[in-house]
What does this fold into?
Amino acid sequence: MQIKSQVTQIIVLIVIQVFFFACKRDDPPDYSPPASNRRTVLVYLGTDNNFRAEAAQKTGQLKNGWNRDIDGNLLVYADAGDHPSLIHIYTHPQKGNMSDTVEIYPPENSAGAVTLTRVLNRVREYRPAASYGLVVLSHATGWLPATMSNPSPQLRSVILDNGTAETGNYMELADFAAAIPYKMDFIIFDACFMGSVEVCYELKEKTDYIVASPAEVVSPGFVYSTMPERLFTYPQADLQGVAQDFYDCFNAQSGLFRSATVSVVRTAGLDAVAGIFKEVAGQASNEKDISLNDIQTFGYGQQKIYFDLGDYAKHLSPDSYSEFTAELDGCIVYKAHTDSYYTAGAATLLPIRSFSGLSVYIPQNAYPEANAKYRELKWTAEN
It folds into this structure.
């Protein structure tokens, strides 16, 4: 009986091993996420602030919007506090759409230039491609430095990081530009006040196109569910579609939520815009008294900081306005706006009478700090 028992055990072990190896042969090999050499896009979620909940929301929307026919690599860097991560969104042949974690990082400052550069380099190393795109979600105040005392529309500059260990971390516009280690096909800013001529001119060597809003972006911001389809059209991404999805979404709202301004800017045309603007400004009489109240503004509450570029040029030199507009329209691929825009500083809607697609700062005696910093920008230093 003992021998029979031992034989039985041996037979059972053999059967188990045969079954195990048979199953092993039927299982597919470990799956490697697809790699495309056409385009890689990084969605950079600088949400270690009061946008923390949006990190998971946006990632989920991008995942749901992906489909197996898209030819490209979609990566998401999400910093919502404790465990920033790099995520790859793709379609698994058996499991469907996936959002796999590529790397997890210790708590860090996502508003730091070093962090942005490291993530962009890692993305290129992980999925090299012929073209690259960048989407940035965070708080922002355009070109305005975050350290100024006046004006102070809750200054955040380009990205805000509110982590426990790094409260008050911001990235200035010049640092943001310097942190981008290689040329982008496009940069999309899901952030307030980034649709200014100063921002676009600072980034003209870093990207071919910019999608941004001259005014505040009402939450939940851009439409991420349709982004994957838009970002991976060829030969160019459907940036107008991205902008129009955003506009259509908010134009369909009511009350304070019916607020949107957005533009798609071709940066190659900005040098010509700068040249004609310099001529327009030079033709304006030094004695000409221009009231800031007469120029379309997209400011924060009662602070008049962001003015419509075209409207300002018209007030400077009406005779040259058509020539300036023709040059500006040459680099504005698409623009759209609702009848009014929301300003959190006054918690109200203000009318939009004029919209050229970009904002501009007008130096004022009330803001000496801003005036000094403004002279350091490429827009003013080179023109």
About this structure: Confidence is low (pLDDT under 50) at residues 1-28. The domain at 39-268 is CATH 3.40.50.11970 (Rossmann fold). The chain is about 35% helix and 20% strand. Residues 33 and 90 are 7 Å apart (CA to CA).
